[in-house]
Every structure is written in C-alpha cells, then in structure tokens.
C-alpha cells in the first residue's frame, strides 16, 4: 500500500508533545480561506511512499523523539483521507514503541477504516473550524457536522484530544461563537489541552504560485490582545 505525501518535517515542536517527526499528507476536502498549505489540497499531488520507505526515516531521528517523549504526527492535508495507509504506518510505529498523533479536522464521516486507525492513535489534535455551521461552510466550504461528530466520537472512546482554534479576526473571533464553542468543549470528557492558533498569512505566496487569489487579503493578523480575549472566553490558562 502506498500513501500520497506532500512533505516531511524531522524536528517539529508545535504539533504534539516533545520532538516530532511530522508527515504532511496530500489531499484535503476542505477549502479553508486561511489555509497555509494550499498546495496540499489536490489528491493527485504529492509523492507516493510505502510504509517501508518511511520507517527508516523515522528510525534516524528516533533517539531525539525518545529523549523528548515525542513521537510522530500525521498532518496534511487531511490524514483521514488516507486512513488505511496511516493505520498501516501506525501499526508499525506501535511495534517500535513510538507515540502516534493525528492532526485533523475530522472532515470525513466515521467509517470502519477510521475506527481501525484510531485503535493505534495515542493523541488527536482536532481543529474546530467553526462552531457555527453556516460560518463553517463560508470559511471552509463544508459543513461542520463531520468535525463536531468526530469530536464527540473521540470523547466516547476516550482518545486524548488537544482542541485547536485558529483565530481569524472577523471570522472566528465572535464572542458568542466562542462561548458556544466553550460549552461544546465542556461536553467532551477527553480534552487535555486547548490551543489558540493566531491566524497568519505566511502561506499566501502558495496561493499566488498556484495562480489563485488569496481569500483573506487585507484581514489583519490578530495581536496579543485578541488572543488573550479568546483565551479568556474559552477559559484557557
């Protein structure tokens, strides 16, 4: 079995605990206006790899992973789009005693392939795109139904979750939306951490390179005050 992969990062430090080897999968059904990995959307892009080709890359950095209590994070793109491949990889990683993590928006209905993958998943970084469905559709091109149902499923089966919210002024910073999101998060019993990720436009050159107009042109970057307000509403220490 092969997976389509966009790129690798050997020493990631912000996508889960410790030092992490990060694999960015190719292909995503969402069309987030703030996406900084625009070049990962198309499912026909990227490079094909087998699990057997990836494991040696990971073994090279395993001493750093082990010494920092780190692991492997599968990001994207959307990892659930290639659930069978990621599951095969995670099975091998568990044999090596390596911590496994998925960075996902839960963009697909829960099926047997996803359920099987989650058996070998130690942590999920879950992006809540928007708690308001109409605003989610405007922001990402898709309903938030799968996103929120995935969060509930993870809670039901007890997989640890870090909730991530991208803070985009004028899009995801409304007080009442954040209050609604806080109540949703409180309904879950597996949330270990909540992160506010300030919007940035560092990936806009990728849109330009693809001949496309950046959707959030002119939207300001949130400042420390914006972030602190959101943290206060979500009751993040």
Question: Can you describe this structure?
Answer:
38% of the residues are buried. An eight-stranded mixed sheet has the order 3-1-2-4-5-6-7-8, with helices on one face. The protein has helices at 51-67, 83-95, 112-118, 133-140, 145-157, 175-186, 204-209, 224-234, and strands at residues 2-12, 20-25, 47-50, 71-75, 99-104, 123-127, 161-167, 191-198. α2 runs parallel beside α3. The protein has 237 residues and is α/β, with parallel strands linked by helices. The protein contains eight helices and eight strands. It has a single domain, classed as Aldolase class I (TIM Barrel, Alpha-Beta Barrel). A hairpin with a 7-residue loop joins β1 and β2. The chain is globular and about 45 Å long.
Topology (elements, then pairings):
Elements: E1 2-12, E2 20-25, E3 47-50, H1 51-67, E4 71-75, H2 83-95, E5 99-104, H3 112-118, E6 123-127, H4 133-140, H5 145-157, E7 161-167, H6 175-186, E8 191-198, H7 204-209, H8 224-234
Parallel strand pairs: 2-4, 4-5, 5-6, 6-7, 7-8
Antiparallel strand pairs: 1-2, 1-3
Share of β-strand residues = 15-25%
Number of helices: 8
Q: What spatial order of strands do you see in the largest sheet? A: 3-1-2-4-5-6-7-8
What is the number of beta strands?
Answer: 8
- Number of self-contained structural domains: 1
Low-confidence stretches: none
CATH class category label: Alpha Beta
Task: Give a quick account of the main beta sheet: strands, pairing sense, barrel closure.
Answer: 8 strands, mixed
How far is the N terminus from the C terminus?
43 Å
Integer average pLDDT: 96
């Amino acid at each position: 079995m092969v997976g389509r992969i966009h790129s690798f990062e050997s020493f990631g430090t912000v996508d889960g605990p410790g030092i992490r080897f990060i694999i960015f999968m190719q292909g995503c059904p969402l069309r987030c206006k703030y996406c900084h990995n625009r070049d990962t959307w198309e499912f026909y892009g990227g490079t094909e790899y087998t699990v057997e080709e990836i494991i040696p890359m990971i073994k090279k950095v395993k001493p750093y992973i082990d010494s920092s209590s780190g692991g492997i994070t599968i990001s994207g793109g959307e990892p659930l789009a290639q659930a069978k491949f990621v599951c095969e990889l995670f099975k091998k990683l568990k044999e090596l005693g390596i911590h496994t993590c998925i960075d996902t928006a839960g963009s697909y209905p829960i099926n047997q392939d996803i359920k099987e993958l989650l058996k070998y998943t130690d942590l999920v970084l879950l992006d809540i795109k928007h708690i308001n469905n109409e605003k989610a559709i405007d922001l990402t091109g898709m309903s938030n139904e799968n996103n929120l149902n995935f969060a509930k499923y993870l809670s039901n089966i007890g997989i640890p979750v870090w909730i991530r919210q991208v803070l985009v002024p004028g899009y995801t910073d409304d007080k009442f939306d954040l209050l609604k999101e806080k109540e949703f998060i409180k309904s879950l019993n597996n949330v270990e951490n909540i992160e506010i990720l300030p919007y940035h436009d560092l990936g806009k050159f990728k849109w330009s390179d693809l001949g496309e107009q950046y959707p959030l042109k002119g939207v300001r970057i949130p400042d420390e005050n914006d972030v602190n307000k959101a943290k206060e509403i979500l009751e993040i220490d």
